Amino acid sequence: MGNQTIFFRNQPRIVATSTIAGPKECEGIIGRYVETALSDDMYGESTYEKAECKMLSTVIDGAIANAGLKRNEVDLIVSGDLLNQIISASFAARDFSVPFLGVYGACSTMAESLAVAAAFIDGGHIRRAVAATASHFASAERQYRYPLELGCTRPPQAQWTVTAAGGALISAEGDGVRITSATLGKVVDFGVTDVNNMGAAMAPAACDTILAHFRGGKEEPEAYDLIVTGDLGALGSRILKDLTWEKGLDISANHVDCGEIIYNVIEDEFQGGSGAGCSAVVLNSYLFNKLMGGSFKRILFVATGALLSTVSSGQGESIPCIAHAVTLER
Amino acid sequence: MGNQTIFFRNQPRIVATSTIAGPKECEGIIGRYVETALSDDMYGESTYEKAECKMLSTVIDGAIANAGLKRNEVDLIVSGDLLNQIISASFAARDFSVPFLGVYGACSTMAESLAVAAAFIDGGHIRRAVAATASHFASAERQYRYPLELGCTRPPQAQWTVTAAGGALISAEGDGVRITSATLGKVVDFGVTDVNNMGAAMAPAACDTILAHFRGGKEEPEAYDLIVTGDLGALGSRILKDLTWEKGLDISANHVDCGEIIYNVIEDEFQGGSGAGCSAVVLNSYLFNKLMGGSFKRILFVATGALLSTVSSGQGESIPCIAHAVTLER
Predict the structure, then answer these.
(1) Which of A49, A94, A187 sits opposite B90 (nearest CB)?
(2) Least packed by Cβ within 10 Å: which of A31, A213, B251, B285?
(3) Angle (nearest 5°) at CA A43 between A41 and A48
(4) Domains of chain A
(5) A289-308: pLDDT as tens digits
(6) Please, which residues 278-307 of chain A have a Cβ atom closer than 8 Å to chain B?
(7) H/E segment holding residue A93
């Protein structure tokens, strides 16, 4: 592995997780693994933003409780989300009297927060942290796209922002899924300007980080049961396989994308799911379950983020993207 | 010190810094210490946002060059800013082929990025990182307040967002200012809803973190030459002194606020400066200079952030705030 990869000598571990997802999301594969299935994506709140914030609070509290801990036994919350000024994370953290580090990596947040939390724990600075993130279809549409009431037609390359949250309790000790390395990504921009085609924009960033991870040559993709990207979607996933193959790395046998598998694609989702909550809910429900159960022994979790804003796109900028990877072992 | 405080055993050090500031800012005390004094706050760009991004790129590159290094000798950039989706930081990072962690702590970003970078270095995960942030008066007004063209009257409790950027090159070795501890803050909300009175909103967060830092009782405020807050402004600084005094901690003898000292307050700034660039430019120019020169031996740098967004304020929420502290020693 190249020098972008950090190895965690003390192998911090995910000892518990918590997840929540909306009704549409629970129709798919994660419906059987998610901890809290919402019947109403307003979650009893008056605005979409407050619903997203409450989902995030729920999984932070859930991860702490599922680890058999109390809030005051946690040293740090690392979290972020897609909304302006990461208000979901900041306002969720307000409910907890726990030190907070806000991060912004768009849809790469789950991997970024895991890497940051693991680094603090591995260095012996803290003992326990929660890494969590969320997204909500309606708050994301309101902020990044058009008012839902307009009923805009979605192009076929579009994805559907997942309404879900996922949180992981990471500890210096205990039984769980070990975080053995993190490959921190660089910002990569291939000049894509179509804000409806996030998969094409993010695939080069995923490729860059995956290549950096395997560059050292000590490992082959086959050393992993799965190489899981966050929310490239069906098209982005195909682009990633092509890009890595062109660079001499064949990941096609064990690559899967959370965005591609989260929905039973029937109509509006087109390329699948996206959003920070997409990879967060798949990792912390389905993948964590399979790792703990022994079905998977080792996965590379590569969450991807598109670092655009409406202002940057409005000013004619292309979409810079990033991907962070963490190795999870059982 | 309480358990919110992390001690860095290997004492990562700031070996070089770089700063840039607008014409208005350079009229004040930092004018004599800043590396690049802009005569035009557009910095040759076509939009305020692009100018802010370019300022950030300049100080990241400057910190690397001033340390006698090349870009490829840096392992990590930790950065964030005030704009939606931290576009200044993300787009600046695009120019560097260096791993990037985006953080969001509003005006607390300089302290947050120093703490995160120091933790990665102290844990032996990386050798060198840049921590940097920026803000721009005009891009902040556009995003958080009113169009400049409206010419809105500012209330007397308002502050003025600083047009400036500052970056620090932190290394595992070399001669410099040592980062010996970090006290990571909790989100504190005293129910302030006046978006023009950030000092009042942020002072309780600064108080909470400073109390957490001194709680262990092993040290008195006198152990520090300065206890420097980020951008509370004149009013916020007075509130902080009152709040800490009420809790039995007297910091009045050596407390100073970057926002209070940055301008020669004459007219529009009222309570002084604010913005992520405020504490970043004061720390990385004036304070770094005085630490390296031996005038100060030990300072507690406490950057404060108001974690609001226009959406949260529009939905009737109060302003949650946070403060992170780092101990800097020479």
Answers:
(1) A187
(2) A31
(3) 65
(4) 5-171 (3.40.47.40), 177-329 (3.40.47.40)
(5) 999 999 999 999 999 999 99
(6) 307
(7) helix A87-94
